[in-house]
Task: structure prediction
Amino acid sequence: ATTWNVSLWGKRRAFTENVEKLAELVEKKTDGKFKLNISYGGLSKNKENLDGISIGAFEMAQFCAGYHADKNPSITVLELPFLGVDSLEQEIAVSKAVYEHPATKKDMARWNATLLMPSPLPQYNIAGVGEAPEKLADFAGLTVRATGGIGSAMREINAVPTSMSASEVRQALDSGVIKAAAFAPHAHMSFGTVEIAKWWTTNLNPGTVNCPVVVNTDALNALPEEFKTALLGSVDEALKHYVDYYNNKTMARWGPLLDEKGIKRVTFKEEALAEFREKVAGPAAKAWVTANTARGLPAQELYDLVESTIKKTAK
Amino acid sequence: MDSVDIGLIVSGFMLAMVVLGVRVAFAAAIAGLTGLVWIFWSKRGYDPEHFFWALTVATKTAGQVPHSKIASQALSLIPTFILIGYLAYYAGLTKALFEASKRWIGWLPGGLAVSTVFATAGFAAVSGASVATSAVFARVAIPEMLALGYDKRFAAGVVASAGTLASLIPPSAILVIYAIIVEQDVGALLLAGFLPGAFSAVVYAVLVVLMAMTFKNFGPPVRGFTWWQRFQALPAALPIVFVIVIIIFFIYNPFGGDAWGTPTEGGALGAFVVFLMAMARGMRWAQLKDALIETAKLSVMIFTIIWGVLIYVRFLGFADLPGAFAAWISSLDQSPMLTLVMILMAYAVLGMFMDAIGMLLLTLPVVFPAVMALNGGENVAAADSAFGMSGTGCAIWFGIIVVKMAELCLITPPIGLNCFVVAGVRPEISVQDVFRGASPFFVADALTIAGLIAFPSIVLYLPGLLGI
Amino acid sequence: MAGVSSVLEDDSLLSRLDRGLFKIEEFLALVGGLAVFSLMLFAVVSVAGRNMFNAPLPGYVDWIEQIMPLIAFVGISYCQRLGGHIRMDLAVGALSGRALWSVEFFNTLLMLVVMLLLVWGSWAHFDRSFDWNSPMWSRDSSVDIRLPIWPAKLLAPVAFSVLVLRLLLQLWGYGRAIVTGDERPVAVPLIEDAATQAAREAKQVSSLESEDGRVRGSL
Ligand code: NA
Ligand code: NA
Result:
């Protein structure tokens, strides 16, 4: 029997269902001869999961590109603001396209890592306390927890992005250090922002974070063919389960929860959003391309790949 | 051999090293590293050709831990809290507090001793460490008590015991360490320590009054201060109030508005206020440098234990020992409360021989998940739990109790560091005298712990305001 | 538990090396202390910026995460020179002479082995975050303002290497004491019983305040 150690963090949640399902499928397909032993935080800190893969301490791990842009510059293209992705399926398609690009593979090969699958998240939106913003101008001076591309987008509308780890967000909202936080819905629920939020933006959709699952390349190559097939052959089903779970369990709970907590839905006019996107998206993409070309990445090519894939998969 | 066996053997090896006098931080790191090598090598069937591979992976895994775990905002509270304590001496806060206490409540039976208890409690609001607190008050309070004809054992016992309040009343380095090891909200734990600290101080004070009333020679009251003199004594002690207000308001705003920031910022601002006060009182670079070096030394000592133990914890993660221990504890065929009391008894015994921080760091990674499992798990609702509180509530409640337990061990023989320090400051009082003087307070502490177990709301009321 | 102990000195090469290294260690400890002080200033700037100018210090958390290793690591050898790392000295406290020095030698050797391994492991951790060919040599950056992390990671192997030197000197000191049977050898922290230790800590406290309330000395 072969056992792989898998390093995740936090608790079991919508975000980890792709790995949980993968473990279940692999074990079933190999009659229990190949097991994925999932650990939540016991094997590594989330920011060090790539290090652990590179060392060979465990065989599989999940991480988010934005935790450490310099470790994985190629993937951060997927975290640019206002890419215009509007479903989990589309997020999967774009992620896969980028993951399969030779430059991305080479980037990950520095960590002895092979990208296995994404953990697609919907667009972030902002939940906050105090008076609800009615137009984008109302964001001026608003302290908001937002990182990476979403943070820069916030700066464009004169909000004040503030940094802290996700687990500190609740306390920071309670204590007035921030007035709002940008998260995907499942994270608004698991980090408790819904408990005190007064409003939530429905259609700001500034972007999301990209959190792939990777495997140690040597371990993957050392797998018997049967196990390797079972593993790689289960990815699509695991992702399908993930998307169902996210849409049917998490998103289905989200609307009623907003009503139950009396959280006001803030929807912005399309013209206003278009202007916002124009102001932010172009310059952010340009800055990303410049910075990453300097790193020796075919940055323009990666960005074009993202754009074309989004167009291709748009409904 | 399965990984749990490896976990047990390596843990035994670590305890043997600690007993043999290997410094705790390094004993834990050695055990963790050895265990990691063992686990990785066993994965490759103990093939001699793969030993070097296992050593490499284990070493690189362990080598991440120091930076990875130490580079954390929450941990920055520890050096800040230590620095506040040192600066407070230079700001002359000890004498000011004692003087104010004496003028206001010295009229009680055993008045000076009661004043000592409350002055110490006040000082605890700027000091994060028990031993230092006892040392300072041994110098400030004991001479005055002896001059008034107090029993010397009694006087020494009061100071040794009251010093332990510093670890419950925020700021407290040990509560921050607990919060980080068990991954709970630091602010909630600091807030939780406040009432039990105050409760503990009141229990001490009541005991002092009762003893002074029972044994006439123990301590006469101090009378004759005018109201004018009383108010005159307040301004010098005022910075303490500033610091308390700052720290509390940075965790929770009692007036319902926003808090002013995070506990980390509150601690640092508190330190800044005391720093300005010390400057005003004549502290200069030479003294500041001493305070900074002492703070650095104590911080590095604590951080070294933290990363050393976390290397061992990383190994435990690979061996899955905490899970196995928790499963075993919750499978015991006895009431969870009895098991909890037995765990606390084990701490009392261990605490006789070990330092509080080292003891908690070494044991919590295994004991904490077991206690959580006893209560019914991390996500249990209060109604379904064994101890009648939610998972988070239980984590906070157990933290306060176990810290109080560790503090209790500072006044028990044979090592009881607070007693040694008091005896050290006052050459006329022997260590045996201090231990004997502290023994009634040992009883008081045992009652306090029983009280905290019987009435968890003493611990959980304030954190409850944060929504926990 | 052991706190501070005393280290004897004489004219021997060992003792001169001990004092030489101690100068470096004292400097590093002061650097650590100043880093603590900077935490305080950072917080003041951050709170003031947020509340008075609605302009929080960008990357406050990132900066703190960079400062923490400075506090946690650089003084590690200073602490070891003074025997300040906590241990349970009930058993060693009962020994004396060659038996004591042999146990101390063995314990120090264990520490040396683990520290050598950790120099390797923490160097590897640094090395993974460092890349000659990247902008700012960075292969790992902080979440918010993307500070390169390699300088902070480098502090661990550097500080641990100083500790390795200290442990080598202490091994030399203990080894020499085993050979000569000296009761009070130089260059190693001598164990004091709890009472002596307490007396010295107490003396430090006493020296804090002179009679006029002015402060001096240290705690
Ligand atoms: Na305190
Ligand atoms: Na004790």
User: Anything to note?
Assistant: Residues 66 and 307 of chain B are 5 Å apart (CA to CA). The longest helix of chain B spans residues 285-319.
